[in-house]
Amino acid sequence: MELNEIIRPENRVYKKPELLNDTHMHYCPGCSHGVVHKLVAQVIEEMGMQEKAIGVSPVGCAVFAYNYIDVDWLQAAHGRAPAMATAAKRLMPDKLVFTYQGDGDLAAIGTAETIHACNRAENITIIFINNAIYGMTGGQMAPTTLLGQKTATCPYGRRVDLNGYPLAIAPLLAQLDGTCYVTRQSVHTVANVRKTKAAIRKAFENSMKGLGTSVVEVVSTCNTGWKLIPEKANEWMVENMFAKYPLGDLKNKEE
Amino acid sequence: MAKIHGAVVVNTDRCKGCNLCVVACPSHVLDLQKKEVNDRGYHFAYMSNPEACIGCQSCAWVCPDACIEVYRVVEK
Fold first, then answer.
1. What is the ipTM of this complex?
2. Which of B5, B18, B70 is closest, CB to CB, to A30?
3. Helix A81-91 × helix A111-119 angle, to 10°
């Protein structure tokens, strides 16, 4: 069969979601942010919530998320995305409100806002991209940085006596009564990307049903910050990150 | 047995040459351009072995820049 016989609109099985607009993403080649952006766009499109979705973008690499996904966005001060999402959801309960935050935003400066939003059982979804480093500012140590991991501000590796332990946010939020769904996923293989999409869909549905706060943590790579090529970064993540941040559902209130 | 033909179209302007699709492809269809680059200087992905494509969409799912479209025909 010739290529021009296969490449016809009626045979198309996968295309870029329409909500993801044509702006070039500023992310580094191979960054997990792109995959998660695509999944968010796909899920919103499949749920038919284009006109009702409000995202809250953080400060960090994902700060320009409002340029890439064609829904309504708010831009929060550093770490304050869950607080802003709270306001948006309380004023407009019929909207689908989600925050999209990295580990510098959610797990460092915004820990208080995150914990209190989850504890108040706000009907929002928190998408948390955990890549164990501050990517945007040039690869400094984050609270989630693994022990022994080398970054710009811990060039000999993170040490317990000097820097303390890596912070696992998802188990912390899972023990709060306000959260209904806490899951940890990744996007390094096709199977994991599909699972992450299902998790985002479930989280969005939960927030529309008013069950409480849903948290989707995505264990991600930062190949530039880790100084690895994208596929090696994925391998490094599987070898090192999953021991501290194991994948799976931590809490699912429906069950 | 039904024969499956697949093909991918890469949006070469959007592609950043991260190589993740090349690694994800189970039938080794894709490769990065060795010499050609797009207007941003990235060696974009292309089908180096188009006959082997089964239209499984693995490349498209893992692509961080959503630049891959997949086409699939099942011949009965």
1. 0.94
2. B18
3. 30
Tokens representing A93 are 């309960």
Question: Which residue in the block uniquely carries the two structure tokens 């996904």?
Answer: A69
Cα R_g (chain B), whole angstroms: 12
Cα dihedral sign for A142, A131, A199, A238? Answer: negative
Cα gap A102→A116, rounded to integer Å: 17
8 Å CB contact between A144 and A166: yes
- Residue B4: list chain A partners with CB under 8 A: none
Q: How far apart are CA A112 and CA A108, in angstroms?
A: 9
Question: What does the block give as tokens for B49?
Answer: 């072995």
Q: Which amino acid is at A248?
A: G
List, in order of start, the domains of chain B with CATH numbers.
3-75 (3.30.70.20)
> Which residue among B14, B18, B60 sits closest to A14, beta carbon to beta carbon?
B60
Condensed to tens digits (0 to 9), the pLDDT of residues A136-157 reads 999 999 999 999 999 999 999 9
What's the CATH code, domain A31-133+167-223? 3.40.50.970
- Between A32-47 and A190-209, two packed helices, what is the crossing angle to 10 degrees? 50
- Sort strands A96-102 and A53-57 into parallel, antiparallel or unpaired: parallel
CB A60 within 8 A of CB A135: yes
